[in-house]
Queue: 3 jobs
Job 1
Amino acid sequence: MTTNCDSIRSSFSAYLDGAIPGHRMQEIARHLESCSDCKSEFEGLRVMQQSLCMLGRAKAPADLGMKLRLAISHERAAMKSSWKDSFSLKWENTVRPLLVQVSAGFAGSVVLVGGIVLLLGMVAAPEPVMANDEPLGAITVPHYLYSAVSPHAIATSHDAPIVVEAYVNEQGRVYDYNIVSGPVDTSVKNQVVDQLVMSVFQPASVFGSPVRGRVVLTFAGVSVRG
């Protein structure tokens, strides 16, 4: 009897979904008429199924598409972390301090040699030095270039500027952002994203090579009253 009950109960889910043959459904129905324990468990499952059906389909957030686009762009940018970023970090942590020490030692040597030359009276006119190269360690931040849409004020519930911190990749496109101050409702976020995704920036650079960077932007907020 126990084995038969176990077999019947294992088919309850398929029975509720109507996913078993007719003869099996009849067998389970007859069993439920004669077995109070199985009938009690089945009724509990049926009530649970009805309750879940009454919940209905969950509604996706209005800004779900926007968040997914930004999340995907963020992940792609993280996966494409270039050797330039790694080189920049290694330069700041190891190579640059070493070069500073070497430069200091070299400068001391130049002063010593220069003093000896002056003492010996072997002074020659210095040759002009051209400074056409980019300064060592030059770092730039992203700069706005243009947008595929005309920049316009953000419609808000009250007049207030919106300050946004935008993250720009090596191609000069925004892959993530954060509203630092100002209204943060769904309508404002959608308008900010519409302008950011269509904007093109001059990417940040290290030693003349483009890298990811951050830029702070300010949008005018204009109150719209019905």
Job 2
Amino acid sequence: MTPGGTPGAPGVVVVTGVGRYLGAHVAARLAADPRIERVIGVDPTTPGPEFTDLLDRVERVRLDLGSLGGLLADLDVDAVVHLALVSAPDPQHGGRAAMKEQNVIGTMQLLAACQRAPRLRKLVVRSSTAAYGASFRDPAVFTEETEPREVPRGGFGRDILDIEGYVRGFRRRRPDVTATVLRFAPFIGSTADTTLTRYFSQPFVPTVFGRDPRLQFVHFDDALEVLHRSVAEEHPGTYNVAGPGVLSLSQAIRRAGRVAVPVLEPGLSGAAALARSLGFGRYGLDQVDLFVHGRVVDTSRLEQEYNFTPRSTAAAFDDFIRAHRGGVVLTRDTLAAAEQVVLESIRQVRQAVQERS
């Protein structure tokens, strides 16, 4: 291994997905670590101008994952951090087909390149607690050994299961490489911009009638800390990464000062479609199932192995609230559309009550 500043710290690190928020911040943080000699950021597109200053110490290479093999061999790369995952389909950029191509095929290509890299000694892969799925059969708490009770309905959850399966195969073929898989709870915090934060930023938040799921979040800064330690230190294995404690969906909505709009479960997808048209982000079955069933994971393995405890779910959510205290400024058209959501939700609830009586 190319000598780093301390034992275990890699000399040359490649970070995929630096054109996105998470990848850019991880690459910048690693580049600022004096124990790491060189950080190379890989992305098929040029990072946006908002990342220019952030990535000033990062060597940037425009490259897709299928062309990574030559780079790993030519530069004697010691560690790879794989963050180039898409969590929700974007209809404007190929939809679900493009999402699966990036997540599943891209990861296969990356792992094939890693397998051929003789000097590689460390692999860190972003995963998600979506791997556990979300259903009425779920246990109260998932550990890293818990198998999903049902195959996730959403594309991202299914992609994560495929990705982790390929990593297990890689571990068998390259036992000399320290492979770390991090199953992150949904990101939240003052700077995070995700499907979840856009969901809670709506003035009217659609919820499922009769459901109040338990949720866990991880603060974005704590996610950066865990990723940083995974590269600079030796932590083989799979870890749940989430803030201790839980918030029910109703508690989170009240803390955010928003108005819950209960809809029937089939109607949540319709409300989510309307939210997309209002510019509040992309919602898929992964998110819908999370808002129906919730998900809680055990983080004791992370705390013991890393000697680090992320801030609690409640504290992470409160940080998000402080940064979004002003709420969303509504135009007349947006307000009219939101009012239609409320009226339609009331109609659906009344109809459900009448049908049951």
Job 3
Amino acid sequence: MASGQLSLRSMVFGGGAVLMLMPAIIAGTFYTGALQRRAETLLVERLKARGELSADQLGRRLNQLWQEVSALSKIIDVDDLAKSRDSLNLISQLDTRYSWIGVADVEGTVLTASRGMLEGQSVAERPWFRRGLRGPTAVDVHQAQMLAKLMPASAEPYHFIDMAAPIQKSNAVIGVVGAHLDWRWVVDSLNNLQAPGIDLLLLSRDRTVLYGPANLIDKPLDIGAAQAANRVTLAVLDERWPDGKDYVTVVVPTVSSGDLPGFGWSLLVRQNLDEALATTRELVRTFWLMLGAGATVALALLFLGSHWITTPLRRLASSSEAIVADGEQTIPYVETRYAEAARLSHALVRLQSRILRR
């Protein structure tokens, strides 16, 4: 064999390995890529569905309360305060989500209220009253101030969201009906909407976390998902959060339903990317391990096959070289492994016979 030339065994082994492995690697790459993209698509669709469902359910529950407050503003009778107090007491007893319901005149003095709380006191500076004079309103969560002194002692400070609507008579505003809703009810509602491995975060208008993981509550959120809140119809982002982990985040820009005045809330639904795709990534790793193991076995068999194919040729080449060097050498090995080697072996025998006859 000339120096620098490849052996047939090397060409058979190398060529077979390329022809066998390249299609498998290319197909495997396309398959695993498509698998991961599909897993990511399903993840996003699942988070979108949960985000929209959670925002819709919370909005519907709030809207139900809003409809009650709005209806109350149309039927409350400021001329019969005793009857009005009985009605407010009954509502607050039947629905514990109301911590306080009251009616104030246009000057801001509470005329009547559930359990008589704050009656005779001025709420003229409270946002719900000032905005309620102008029209139906909803006020974001805040810590109790005046009402806290009248509430039962609690280890945690009381927080409320407010709803208010003007009371009109002959097309003139004669007062405002307001309701304080216990924030713990909102928290319980969101807790019931949680799912394992998926976090719900409720953001205020100024991107402060109202509900979510304990380490983020009452803190402003400056990541891209928070920046996208209140700006888009629906957004999906893959980004790193302050805890150093990567999350897929779906932004639901509004939490509202029907005629409910908006609180300016946005809902974020996030899931840890590594945890969400762990099963898919394990499946991909298993696929490549199995493909690698199969390729190793195939290469070993290919190596043995190339050795099996080239052995007769090596023996015949040695016999040919011996005939050239000395025509009286022993008869070449009779090859029968495959037809081409057998033909070449018989030809060498006949060639040696002619040389000897000469």
